[in-house]
Amino acid sequence: MDEVTRFGGIVLLVSAAFLVAVLSNRLSERLRVPAAAFFLLAAAVASDIWPGLHEALSIQHVERIAVVALVVILFDGGMRVGWQRSRESAVPIVSLGLVGTFATAGLMTLPAHFLLDFSWETSALLGAALAPTDPAVMFSVFGRKEIGGRTGTILEGESGANDPVGIALMLAAVSLAQADSTSVAGAVGEFFLELGLGVVFGVVGAYVLLLLVRRIVLPNPALYPLRTLAFAGAIYGAATVAHGSGFLAVYIAGILIGDADIPAKRGIERFHTSLASLAEIVVFVALGLTIDLTALGENNRWLDGLILAVVLAFVVRPLAVGPLLIPTHLSNGERLFVMWSGLKGAVPILLASFAVLGGVENADRIYGIVFVVVAFSVALQGASIPYAAARLGVPMRTGPPRGS
Q1: What is the DSSP secondary-structure string of 63-107?
Q2: Do 40 and 287 touch, CB atoms closer than 8 A?
Q3: Which one, 6, 180, 241, 311, has least CB within 10 Å?
Q4: Mean pLDDT lowest for which of 138-147, 193-202, 208-217, 382-391?
């Protein structure tokens, strides 16, 4: 009976957490702060108050949770953007996702080295970890808000496209930083191989999924969303086993089926949007539980993170993406809005966990600094998005729920 009682308590706590997660979306809309900020900071505080929570999950467990959550989020994000919207803004999305990620990583290496006195190797790891924007936060902020013109499409497309690039870049950086590191040429070759295979698996996976959905009728409409979810996982797994970017494959597959005419499409969209919202909360809670707030005071990690967050938001992001936005024919206000709206989130913390799992030098310090940068970006930048849109003349209005 004791085991039954203990498990009942666990079910109660988890169910209560899910209920709070659902209600938090309403609170988030009122306070104009992304729900992710509440859960990331609340989990970090809870792990300090109850140390057992911090010890319940290892970095490896959290990394796996984040991977699964990101698969769900990227697939839903790809369907949100769709092929039509992404094709119209393909040039800025690809340039920001690829060139912008490299530029941000390279530029962030400089303040990490000269301002924080990190070695070039550690600075490069920090730059790679902080380079990508985060789809979970971006889709959460823009969830029911429609932005006029191509601005919203560019930001959402960038956040999905630069994650696979950032992940491949971080894995290459960690490989080079390890004692038995591969050559630079080998790491570069592996990077482009991952992206290339990710594109192939994404296109082929979307084609096969559309064939199955259109030709095989299921007995219950409720099974259609489960089939797409299972296939998204299969696409990620197949691409990863083949040493490709599973994240890129899932995102591309989502884009290609986003505008397709398939049975039970509205139910599929509602299911994946709801699941992605839950996945966002779960991953932020899991990541928050791994942070020791007391340890952030050691060696002024919180101050290091705050310095990098300010430099990233006000200097590096504009320098990295500003020139890439010149050919887009956006207004000056729209360009400034894109520069300001490069929000960081779960993905940078996931990338920092790769450094910890890889056993590289200063990995724990990197992880703590990245958490501070993410907290700053989610809580302050995320809350300022509606205000920035209004000040910069970017139309933003609340639309109906997706799939309604």
Answers
A1: HHHHHHHHHHHHHHHHHHHHHHHHHHTHHHHHIIIIIIHHHHHHH
A2: yes
A3: 180
A4: 138-147
Query: What's the residue count for the chain?
Result: 404
Distance of alpha carbon 156 from alpha carbon 130, whole angstroms: 17
Per residue in 75-117, pLDDT tens? 998 998 888 888 888 889 999 999 999 999 999 999 999 998 8
Q: Is 142 helix (H, G, I), strand (E, B) or coil?
A: coil
* CA distance linking residue 286 with residue 48, whole number of Å: 14
Instruction: Provide the whole-model pTM.
Output: 0.86
Burial 339-378 (b: 16+ CB within 10 A, else e): bbbbbbbbbbbbbbbbbbebebebbebbbbbbbbbbbbbb
Burial class (CB in 10 A: 0-12, 13-18, 19+), 53: middle
In three-state secondary structure terms, 263 is: coil
Asked whether the predicted pLDDT for residue 193 surpasses 80, the reply is yes
Q: What are 67's two structure tokens?
A: 């991977």
